[in-house]
Amino acid sequence: MGIETENNSNRASTTTLIFTYGTLKRGFSNHVLMQDLIKSGDAVFNGIYRTVDNYPLVCGPYRVPFLLNLPDATGSHRVTGELYAVSSQGLSRLDELEGTSRDHYERLPIRVEPIDGRDAVFGVEAYYGHRSYAMEMWKRSGKRGYGVYGEKEAKGYVKRKDRPQNLSFLEQINVFVSSCSDN
Questions:
Q1: pLDDT tens for residues 31-84?
Q2: 132-152: per-residue pLDDT in tens?
Q3: CATH 3.10.490.10 at 2-178, yes or no
Q4: Among 20, 34, 90, 117, which lies 20 to 30 A Cα-Cα from 44?
Q5: What are the φ and ψ backbone dihedral angles of 85, each rounded to 5 degrees?
Q6: How many Å apart are CA 69 and CA 125, to the nearest integer?
Q7: Is 90 exposed, middle or buried (0-12, 13-18, 19+ CB in 10 A)?
Q8: 127-to-77, 99, 121 alpha-carbon distances in Å
Q9: C-alpha angle 98-102-103 in degrees, rounded to nearest 5
Q10: In the chain, what are the domain boundaries?
Q11: CA distances from 92 to 49, 84, 140, 163 (A)
């Protein structure tokens, strides 16, 4: 799902359009990675976008945001976020952060449009909560999602370094979705 662009050395390089909806956005804890990618020429901010379809956006353990690949689920919303064009090197770093090789998130296609209502953009991908726990995460949320991950939704977010280290993040997710208590 890449597009060909010219970089500073006039070599063609492939970029991928990535829709971010949580901690990678400006003003949130993991945006420092996006800033590093922008500084190195491995990412370009394209603007504020929203999903064409409704999706569940929920908070999991430690108030970590998860977009769930359950389009048009009752209680879901069009989700607002940021769109970036990311190089293959930058994409590798994002995949590592998002734990795609460890089944934390999976990068899949999504349809988005600029918030000003212009036509939808194609060839975009987003990091969804992995399918192995998505439905349980949705049930755990009470089947209520957010339209945006903002300051209110992020209140209580715990950075990775401050979380218990005796369980993997996937194990923490599994404990979260199997618990009977409400958010």
A1: 999 999 999 999 999 999 999 999 999 999 999 999 999 998 999 999 999 999
A2: 999 999 999 999 999 999 999
A3: yes
A4: 117
A5: -95, 125
A6: 12
A7: buried
A8: 17, 10, 17
A9: 80
A10: 2-178
A11: 23, 14, 30, 24
Residue positions counted in the chain: 183
Catalytic residue among 4, 82, 96, 98: 98
Q: Which two tokens stand for residue 78?
A: 């069009």
Distance CA 135, CA 70 (A): 8
**Mean pLDDT confidence for 107-135:** 93
What is the residue type of 126?
A: A
b/e map 56-75, b = 16+ CB within 10 Å: bbbbbbbbbbbbbbbeebee
Under DSSP, is residue 8 helix (H, G, I), strand (E, B) or coil?
coil
* Nearest alpha-carbon partner for 129 in 46, 73, 52, 48: 73
Q: Is 125 a catalytic residue?
A: no
CA dihedral 124, 126, 132, 138 (to 10 degrees): -120
Residue 29 C-alpha from the chain's centroid: 13
